[in-house]
Amino acid sequence: MAFFTEKVCFFIFGLMSFCAFSQSGTYELKHKNGSYCYISFTKKGNETSADIFAWWNTKSGQTGSYSGKSSSSDNRYILKSQENDPDCKVTLILQNGRIQVNFDQCATDHLTEDFNGVYTKITDATSGDYLVAAPKSYFYKKPDAGSRQKTYLIKGNKVTLNIDSITPGNWANVYYVDPNGKEFRGYLKLNELRKINAE
């Protein structure tokens, strides 16, 4: 009986750890008119950080952005930013693998109430810097295994994933600069990368 209890406790603890880990990722809200908003959300213990990018899908190319941090002992986070309008209040509520988002007085940062709603997770990737973890990681022209190119990176190379380039699924549209200053952009397989300073 004691052995069974230990196994059950271990299973529950493992499940809780997995659920906490899986909250980090990028979430999306998409409208029928083509506008959308991404939230790249990272959670470490009670601390969270979020990068937000909104595409208005207008002729002017209007976008919105926000970057902030918060701490909380429950699943409700009010972000604070060093860069954005101090009157802008961004509230995130975690709920069953989704995030309820509310923007209040954020018009200066081009994040209106149109982008309030429930966001769905599209990938485990979050914006930031990554290291190549595989011996070789090939560039792909598009997020498709049939579009592999000859160019590749090697283990230890550092790449950057910007929030406006995040792709659903197991792909990362990254930016890389080689030692000679030559720039590369393309898709890499997400499972061949490791996030720097990841939890």
Structure description:
It is a single chain. The chain is mainly beta. The protein contains one helix and 15 strands; from the N terminus they run αβββββββββββββββ. An eight-stranded antiparallel sheet has the order 4-3-2-1-8-7-6-5. Strands 12-9-15 form a three-stranded antiparallel sheet, with no helix packed on it. The protein has a two-stranded antiparallel ribbon with strand order 10-11. A hairpin with a 2-residue loop joins strand 6 and strand 7. The longest helix is centred in the N-terminal third of the chain and has 21 residues, at about 1-20. The two termini are about 35 Å apart. Residues about 1-20 have low confidence and may be disordered.
Short synopsis of the structure:
The chain folds into two domains: 25-123, Lipocalin; 128-194, SH3 Domains (SH3 type barrels).
Q: Name the CATH class of the largest domain.
A: Mainly Beta
User: How much of the polypeptide forms β-strand, as a percent range?
Assistant: over 45%
Task: Estimate percent helicity.
Answer: 10-25%
Using the 3D structure, state the CATH architecture of the largest domain: Beta Barrel
DSSP strand count? 15
CATH topology type of the largest domain: Lipocalin
Query: Largest sheet, if any?
Result: 8 strands, antiparallel
Our measurement of the CA-to-CA distance between the termini, rounded to an integer number of angstroms, reads 35 Å
Radius of gyration: 19 Å
Low-confidence stretches: 1-21
Mean model confidence by pLDDT: 88
The backbone outline, from C-alpha atoms, is: globular
- Estimated structural class: mainly beta
Count of the separate structural domains: 2
Q: How many distinct helices?
A: 1
Q: What strand order characterises the main sheet?
A: 4-3-2-1-8-7-6-5
Sequence of secondary-structure elements: HEEEEEEEEEEEEEEE
